[in-house]
Amino acid sequence: MVLAIETWELTKRFNRVTVVDGLNLAVPEGSVFGLVGPNGAGKTTTIKMLLGLLQPTRGSAWVLGHEAKDAVARHRIGYVPDTQKMYPWFRVEEIFFLCSGFYQNWDWGRVKHLQSKFNLPVERRIRNLSQGTTTLVALTIALSIRPRLLILDEPTTGLDPIKRRQFFQLVLEEVAGEGTTVFLSTHHLGDLERLADQIALLDKGRLVFCQDMDDLKRSFRRIQTVFPGGLPAELSRLPGVLKVERAEHVCSLIVNRDADRILARVREFNPAFVEVQDLSLDEIFYYAVGGEHRV
Question: Which fold is adopted by the domain 3-215?
Answer without folding.
Answer: Rossmann fold (3.40.50)
